[in-house]
Specification:
By secondary structure, this protein is an alpha/beta fold. It is built from five helices and six strands, in the order H-H-H-H-E-H-E-E-E-E-E. The protein has a five-stranded mixed beta barrel with strand order 2-3-4-6-5. Helix 1 runs antiparallel to helix 2 (36-63) and helix 1 (2-21) runs parallel beside helix 3 (81-89). The longest helix is centred in the N-terminal third of the chain and has 28 residues, at 36-63. The protein starts with a helix and ends in a 15-residue tail after the last strand.
């Protein structure tokens, strides 16, 4: 019953999607949180289609007297087998330093007036906020301020490294990275999640496009990777 093989492939694909989206958080390595319901629905549909196909095949086999048909399985269908098995038994890792090192930093544009910064010290900031303040805030509000940001390590050159966040608009295919070059602190392995406190590293003219998006680190503390690391969120507490 070659049709049963097709049904089996649908079942495997459905189980793979349900495994990463319903029973674990693995789907958050590849898509935004808002896509999870669609993945769950797709997994359920594939699973039901596979089960229905197997039941129909069994019914036809019992009624035609010889229990098999001569319909072939398209070769392209077998390409579904590997990703389905991968989702079930070995899900690819999340995007990280390897991806960030091979793409330019995302252009960050602040399209309104900057509000005054809180007096908190160190000041929690996202990498996007820090970037826009450094290059667009004519008031130079970050000058001399101690800030705190969280991201993962992307190795660099010349004794520096980049604090990085990867942001998804939809899925891993449209990933973009926001980076802040860090001077000082320990040399940590790529993809290590850290919270960094420090001050703006002088370079260029603060508040203009020539300013260096960089930080002189005072402290670097390892932190756990958040469940959904594809957000440029405030530092972890």
């Amino acid at each position: 019953m070659k049709r049963s093989l097709q049904a089996g492939l649908l079942v495997l694909c459905g189980l793979g999607l349900l495994h990463i989206s319903l029973f674990t958080d693995l789907c958050l390595r590849y898509v935004k949180e808002g896509m999870r319901p669609l993945l769950i629905a797709s997994g359920v549909v594939l699973l039901l289609l596979g089960i229905a196909g197997a039941l129909l095949d069994r019914g036809e086999g019992a009624g035609d007297g010889h229990g098999h048909d001569h319909s072939g399985v398209p070769r392209v269908a077998w390409l579904l087998l590997l990703p389905a098995l991968s989702l079930l038994f070995y899900a690819p890792p999340a995007l990280g330093a390897y991806t960030a090192a091979r793409q330019p930093a995302k252009a960050v544009v602040h399209d309104s007036d900057f509000d005054p910064l809180p007096r908190t010290s160190p000041l929690p900031m996202t990498l996007s906020d820090f970037t826009s303040r450094v290059r667009q805030d004519r008031g130079q509000a970050v000058k001399g301020r101690t800030v705190r940001m969280t991201g993962f390590v992307t190795p660099g050159d010349g004794g520096s490294w980049e604090l990085t966040r990867i942001i998804l608009n939809c899925c891993a295919a449209d990933a973009q990275s926001v980076k802040v070059r860090v001077y000082g602190g320990p040399a940590l392995p790529a993809d290590t999640w850290v919270t960094v406190t420090g001050t703006w590293h002088p370079g260029g003219t603060l508040g203009t496009g020539s300013a260096a998006v960089a930080l002189d680190a005072r402290t670097v503390t390892k932190v756990p990777r958040p469940v959904n690391g594809y957000q440029d969120a405030l530092p972890l507490q």
